[in-house]
Write a structure and sequence with these properties.
alpha+beta, 6-stranded mixed beta sheet, 3-stranded antiparallel beta sheet, about 15% strand
Length: about 300
């Protein structure tokens, strides 16, 4: 019942904060970050709690706050021809964009924003597992499957949904599969088992235990970055990591008991909205972002960061 207050996501895109960053460079950019090439990026980004003070117009570190900051990684923003290094600039804009589109499609996505610092932007997102003085119990599917963090890609959506089906009602399973479809549509190749969670709807001790699909987070596309463009999803669906088609989703949905007509209509709605509206999000970005400097190359008929 407090979902809207928790998500607090009625912002206009792009949500760019004009605040002083009262956080030391040592915290923003720790020494020896892991910048070797990996399947995905989110687990290797620096992250910590922050407090947003709109009266003082500043943002500061606070591990007990309701917001996280993910600073950009300097090494990701610096072009290199070293094949063992990732070149992935503007990840914050990437994530803010695709999280916002998810929100506008009707998915539960928390408030998010970006804040400029030098030549790139940091990403800020509201926590969905805290409200007032309470912390809501939530579990990612890696935990449900008994997977360690380093093995978060080592499963399939079939295994994940077998766990979700034991905890969620059909409406939430429908939402979860719709989100997987959106993820494949944008080539969210970093989607892994720690990015899909369930959350208890109440922490009152004598209330019935009931879970829902948790709000979404860590949504971005890896396909624009060379070397991270081979996956539509981070885990297999229908035995595939790429070239996953709508019929594969429909067959999967049928196997878990979801209505085929309803799923078809939902997939068409998502794809149609994305096709018709994606450029309007790009056009809404300020001029300094549109003309941001980055290296590109043509690779497999896609324009990718070189």
């Amino acid at each position: 019942r407090d979902k809207d207050k928790i998500l607090d996501n009625r912002y206009s895109f792009p949500n760019i904060l004009e605040l002083k960053i009262a956080i030391s460079k040592n915290i923003l950019f720790p020494n020896n970050p892991n910048t070797e090439r990996v399947i995905g990026l989110s687990g290797f980004q620096n992250k910590f709690g922050v407090f947003i003070d709109y009266e003082k117009k500043e943002i500061s570190k606070d591990d007990f706050s309701n917001y996280f900051m993910k600073p950009y990684t300097k090494e990701y923003t610096e072009f290199t021809r070293n094949k063992d290094r990732v070149y992935a600039p503007y990840l914050s804009i990437n994530e803010h964009l695709f999280m916002t589109i998810a929100r506008d499609l009707g998915f539960d996505a928390p408030w998010s924003a970006i804040i400029k610092d030098g030549k790139d932007y940091h990403y800020i997102i509201k926590r969905y597992d805290r409200h007032l003085e309470s912390k809501l119990d939530h579990f990612d599917t890696a935990t449900l499957l008994g997977l360690k963090s380093g093995n978060k890609y080592d499963t399939t959506f079939e295994k994940i949904f077998s766990k979700l089906a034991a905890k969620l009602e059909s409406d939430d399973l429908f939402k979860a599969l719709s989100f997987i479809f959106y993820s494949a549509l944008i080539s969210h190749g970093d989607l892994h088992s720690k990015n899909i969670s369930i959350i208890r709807d109440s922490n009152i001790l004598d209330s019935p235990i009931k879970y829902h699909l948790a709000p979404l987070y860590d949504i971005s596309t890896a396909s624009i970055y060379k070397g991270l463009n081979t996956r539509d999803l981070g885990m297999k669906l229908h035995g595939k990591l790429h070239e996953i088609r709508i019929e594969h989703f429909l067959e999967f949905g049928q196997n878990i008991g979801l209505d085929q007509k309803k799923l078809t209509d939902e997939f068409i709605r998502i794809a149609t909205y994305f096709e018709k509206n994606f450029l309007s999000y790009i056009e809404a970005l300020p001029a300094d972002i549109k003309v941001s400097n980055f290296k590109i190359t043509i690779y497999h008929n896609k324009t990718l960061a070189e």
